[in-house]
Write a structure and sequence with these properties.
Blueprint: H1 2-34, H2 38-43, H3 56-63, H4 67-98, H5 104-113, H6 119-133, H7 139-162, H8 167-175, H9 180-191, H10 193-209, H11 212-217, H12 226-236, H13 241-275
């Protein structure tokens, strides 16, 4: 029995190691090649860098391509998107989960059905709308597009999570004098924080990594996101792969930081929900 238990642990470790390597290896590949010269990369793209490390690739991204300004643009768009999305979806999902009114199911299904509409289908009407409102080439054109695009999935996720909240807790809060907004803040959000933190991670990273929407709406160089700038870099400097790897690795760091910060909160939220 003991040998069987050890064999199961070894097998489980091996199974977990495979997806772990698929995530870690691209980062490792970008790191080692970003520290090589162009000649060393084409000679041996899978080997470790030999000789002096080429930190100039990173300094070029900072000085010449102003990657920190690109980070600022991407962070503003992603952060404001997540904040607006959480505000709208938290209140909407609470209503769908706990309030009974005529037409609730039809409205909920209509919201969820928009999730299956590709963003490429709506991009032209959105561009015409934002151009008439004077929002093209502003952060708001991208932010509002993201909120509309992410809202159905976020409502689906949060509604399913909020339905698990015990009604007696909400009734007790109402008896204690908590109004609608107080119940959402003091009961719904703490008990549903697993869905909230999951939404923060997923939609921040999605907004950060998106190329299509900001490429359409943001035309000024000083307002471009990091992904749009890197796409232009790859098309303009096809003969400088090591510089491209440096930019790609730098662009991945903020998303990784967000995930590392909030992953414990998700586990904690799920554990608390399971205990309760």
């Amino acid at each position: 029995m003991q040998n069987r238990g050890i064999a199961k642990k070894v097998l489980l470790s091996l199974l977990l190691a495979v997806p772990t390597l698929t995530f870690i290896y691209p980062l490792y590949y970008m790191l080692i090649n970003s520290l090589k010269t162009r000649t060393a990369y084409f000679t041996n793209p899978f080997g470790l860098p030999l000789g002096a490390l080429q930190w100039e690739n990173y300094s070029t991204m900072v000085s010449q391509f102003q990657i920190f300004n690109l980070f600022k643009n991407s962070f503003i768009i992603a952060a404001v998107t997540v904040i607006l999305l959480l505000i709208v979806c938290t209140f909407a999902s609470y209503v769908f989960a706990k309030y009974k009114f005529r037409g609730r199911s039809a409205i909920y299904l209509a919201v969820i059905a928009t999730m299956f509409i590709p963003s490429q289908v709506t991009i032209i009407p959105l561009y015409i709308l934002f151009s008439r409102l004077g929002l093209v080439n502003t952060y708001w054109s991208v932010i509002l597009s993201y909120v509309a695009l992410f809202l159905p999935e976020a409502v689906l996720l949060m509604t399913a999570n909020f339905r698990g909240i015990i009604d007696e807790l909400l009734e007790a809060a109402e008896i204690d004098g908590c109004g609608y907004f107080q119940r959402v803040r003091n009961v719904v959000v703490p008990l549903g924080r697993a869905a909230v933190f999951l939404s923060i991670i997923f939609y921040f990273i999605t907004a950060w990594n998106d190329l299509f929407t900001p490429m359409i709406f943001l035309q000024s160089m000083d307002k471009r996101t990091v992904m749009v700038a890197l796409a232009a870099l790859m098309g303009r400097y096809t003969g400088a792969p090591t510089l491209q790897f440096a930019g790609l690795l730098l662009s991945a760091i903020p998303a990784l930081i967000v995930y590392v910060i909030f992953q414990r909160q998700i586990i904690k939220g799920l554990s608390v929900g399971a205990i309760k």
